[in-house]
Amino acid sequence: MTPELGIVEGFFGRPWPWQARHAAVARLAPLGYRFYLYAPKSDASLRRDWRSPLADPDELARLAADCASHGVRFGIGLTPFGAHLEFDAEARAALADKIAMLDGTGATELAILFDDMDGGPADLAARQAAIIDFAASRSRASRITVCPSYYSDDPLLDRVFGERPPRYLEKLAAGLDRRIGIFWTGEEVCSREITPGHLDAVASRIGRAPILWDNYPVNDGPTMSQRLHLRGFTGRNARIGASIAAHAVNPALQPVLSLVPLLTLAASYRDADAYCYRRATDEALADIVGTELAALLRLDIKWLQDIGLDRLTAGEKAGLRARYQAIDHPAAREVVAWLEGYWAISGEAVRTQ
After folding, report:
1. I want to staple 343 with a disulfide (CB 3.0 to 4.6 A). Which of 39, 141, 201, 253 is the partner?
2. Assign residue 249 a region: left if phi > 0, alpha if psi is -120 to 50, beta otherwise?
3. Are 7 and 248 in contact, with CB atoms under 8 Å apart?
4. pTM, two decimal places
5. What is the pLDDT of residues 125-165, one digit of tens each?
6. CATH dotted code for 5-282
7. Which residues of 131-149 are buried (b: 16+ CB within 10 A; e: fewer)?
8. DSSP conformation letters of 286-323
9. Residues 79/115, Cβ–Cβ less than 8 Å
């Protein structure tokens, strides 16, 4: 069973250029990608400065219209920092104003995202449910989703954001209308494998099939930004499609190269048990970058994805740069920019975006 596929642009670091977003929608819509959620961590008007006006309302409106022309639903992710600590009259008025702004762009989906913030009080779930209920009552969106503060059972989240309150996920889900979708990343923040058994267990806890927020091929953060994630999807057998409401992919920082693994996800559902990730990677590479550049990327994938920028020698970097500078293709230019540190992300950026 092939679930509805989608993109959730939810990474730290440099956001995609607007034209890259339009290009991704056009390329992926025919493959079953039916929604695009705009939620880059770098857009402060949707995060730490969420009470301020939208940074790019006209561009958002153009993207919403373009998505609609391709049969793709456009949504925006809002992270109301601090609202769970004091959801008073001022915060309610600010949230109502921001919801109206989001509706004004033509977005038909709304995501309230509580990730990347400290857990807070013991009644966190009830507080967040109240915020979601308030937003839903004022939004014209046809679908509303939420990302919990603890969106995986991965203990990494407790270590970074504080220990989760007892039965946090179950209490949050119980406080939400069943029509509201709930994002889940799997057994880990960046799950190596996602199985029907795990997803079915999560569904029993939240009273609905989860929306999978897949953190591959995303490569943000100080460590992951040192790698180009080019290989096809693995560890996601097509059978998980029956256990999820949708499959949303958080792409890599490089918009053209991201298309390679995104094509393989569609292939994995299409081919089911016949899927071969290396063959799918080769086919997607040739499709996106052409046969000449695809052959070069296949040759260098160990250095680009496994060894990574921080472990390449100066000579290896110079050799790779010379090879890709000689090719006039946007994907080759992305490799060169990555080699020059354009997408490197510091811990400070992750803490402050």
Report:
1. 253
2. beta
3. yes
4. 0.97
5. 999 999 999 999 999 999 999 999 999 999 999 999 999 99
6. 3.20.20.80
7. bbebbbebbebebbbbbbb
8. HHHH-HHHHHHHHHHHIIIIII-GGGS-HHHHHHHHHH
9. yes
